[in-house]
Amino acid sequence: MKIAIVGGTGLTSLENLDIIRSEMMNTPFGETSSPLSIGRIDNKEVVFLARHGLTHNIPPHKVNYRANLWALNEVGVDTIIAVNAVGGIREDMVPGSLVVPDQIIDYTTSRSNTFFEDDLTQVTHIDFSYPYSAEIRNVILDSAKNNNINIIDGAVYAATEGPRLETAAEIQRLKQDACDIVGMTGMPEAALARELSIDYASICVNANWAAGLSEQLITMEAIEQTLLEGMEQVRQVIVQILVGQAYD
Ligand code: HPA
After folding, report:
1. For ligand 1, atom 6, which residue shows the shortest CA distance?
2. What pLDDT digit, counting tens, does each position of 146-170 carry?
3. Residue to mutate (ligand 1; options 106, 223, 225, 228; most atoms within 8 A of CB)
4. Structure pTM?
5. CA of 53 to the centre of ligand 1 (A)
6. Residues 6 or more apart from 238 whose CB is under 8 A from it?
7. By C-alpha distance, which of 67, 75, 56, 74 is closest to 7?
8. Which residue, 84, 124, 247, 248, is the most exposed by fewest CB within 10 angstroms?
9. What percent of the chain is predicted at pLDDT more than 90?
10. Domains of the chain
C-alpha cells in the first residue's frame, strides 16, 4: 500500500512528516496544486499534496484535479485519504464534527472530470455505484475509534461548483435530494481516483451549518476557526493509521 493524503482547507501540511523530497510534477494535464511532499511518518512512506496550493490560493473550481491525481498515480500511490471541509446539512453534522461520507451527488458544472476523453480505443465507463473504498473507510473509522475521536459513519456528500457558497434554497433542494453535507472539492477527485483504480476515501470536517440553516453569516474566519480543532483530530486519525496496525 502506498498512501497519499490530499489536504484541503485547514490542512496544508502534515506535521510529523519527515519530508525526504518535494517534487513539483508536470503531467499531461499541467502542474499539480503543490509539490508532492514525499516522506515518512514513523518509517511509513506517505505522500502529501495540498489541494488548494501551499499558500491556499487555488479555489475549488480551479484545482487541477486531473494533474493532481495523475501525479499521485505516477509516483505509485494506490490509496488516497482525502480531507475536505464541508457545510453541515443533516442535523447531526454540527460544526466541528468529523464524518466519513459513503455517497456523492455531483452538482459541479465546469470541471474537467475524466481521463477518458481523448485518444480512446474504446468508450470507457467506470463503475461508481459506491464512490468510496469500503476498506479505506473502515481503516479511517477504526483509527478514530482507537483514538476516542468521534466520527460519523456515512453521509451523502453534495459536490457544488463554488466558489460562492450556496443559497438557502439550494441547500433545501440538496436536503430534499438526501444530501447530508456540502462541499466544493469532493468531485471530480473521487471519480478520477476510481478511473485510475486508486482506493479513495474522505474524512470531512463540518466547518459551518450550510446556508440558511443557522442565523449566523458564513464567513471564512468562522470556517477557519472551526476547522482548527477538527483538523487537529484529522491529523491524529491519519497519524494513527500510518503508525498503527491498520496500514502495512
Ligand atoms: N458549502 C460548500 N462548501 C463548503 C461549505 C459550505 O457551506 N463549508 C465548507 N465548505
Report:
1. 87
2. 999 999 999 999 999 999 999 999 9
3. 223
4. 0.95
5. 18
6. 5, 14, 81, 143, 203
7. 56
8. 248
9. 76
10. 3-115+138-247 (3.40.50.1580)
